[in-house]
Amino acid sequence: MVAVPTPEQFAALQQALAEALKHNETLTGELRITRTERDLLKEQLNKFKRQLFAASSEVTGQHQKDMFFNEAESLGSQAEPAAEEPGNDSDDDKIDVPGHKRAKRGRKPLDPALPREVLRHELPEGERVCPHDGAALREIGVEVSEQLDIVPQQVRVIRHERVKYACPCCDGSLRLAARPAQIIPKGLFTESALAWMATSKYLDGLPLYRQAVLLGRFGGTDVSRNTVAGSMVRAGQAVQPVINLLRIPRDPGHRSAVMADSIPP
Predict the structure, then answer these.
(1) How many CB atoms lie within 10 A of CB 239?
(2) Can you give the pLDDT at residue 103?
(3) What is the mean pLDDT of the chain?
């Protein structure tokens, strides 16, 4: 025979159950916090291990080496060779399919806005004779194919020559032609070079020390990466007013204040 608890015992059981549930929720929250702290500590530990034991240079593991150096072989084995580019969209370049005409598959045409250099290939004079009757062959047309060509970086030197003027009658007048305004006065790099550096670093992800190596290879002159880094810092400081104007909110009052602060003295 099952004993029926008294009301006092039933109330005590309910209270004990409530306390157990509350304690369980507390332990669950503490466990969640402990796991989060554990994961954060693991990330910090891994970071310290990389700083302590990782290679000081950008030499990566063998897996990444194979991934980068064998990229062409890995991707090329999965792709088909590029076909000849299609011509115009005439009926000869279409395949009849019931209900419509489907364009032939092939390489997409190159951008017509790109500059083009025409290389004309002709037969030698001795081969422009018909082998059957000896008559001279006439030109009846050309067969066109296009390839994409890339011109490497061209490094040049801009030489500024400021002309001096003097009075031929006296020594009291000497004038020198002004030099155009520059982002970095007396800087080593032109505005175009600074734009190339900023684009290569912040858009293409090319580190500054690699840019220095490229400048040395293309220009034939060793350029210190400290010089490149300093030029980037000064260029960033020079364009900071423009950045401030781009961040102006829509509030007209605040706009005027920011514009006043952005205009250099």
Answers:
(1) 13
(2) 62
(3) 79
Going from the C-alpha of 49 to that of each of 54, 60, 111, the distances in angstroms are 7, 15, 49
d(CA 102, CA 98): 10
The H or E element spanning position 96 is: strand 94-97
Least confident of 75-89, 97-111, 136-150, 151-165: 75-89
Most confident of 74-83, 165-174, 251-260: 165-174
pTM here? Answer: 0.52
Burial 8-22 (b: 16+ CB within 10 A, else e): eeeeeeeeeeeeeee
Angle in degrees, 0-180, between the axes of helices 225-238 and 208-219, rounded to the nearest 10: 110
Sign of CA dihedral 257, 258, 263, 264: positive
The two tokens of residue 47 are 């970071």
Chain position carrying tokens 């509350």:
22
Rounded to whole angstroms, what are the CA distances from 165 to 141, 160, 186?
61, 16, 22
Using the predicted structure, report yes or no on whether residue 122 has a pLDDT greater than 50. Answer: yes
Residue 61: CB atoms within 10 Å: 9
Q: Exposure pattern of 184-208 as b/e (b: 16+ CB <10 Å)?
A: beebebeeebbebbeebbeeeeeeb
Question: Hey, what are 262's tokens?
Answer: 């952005």
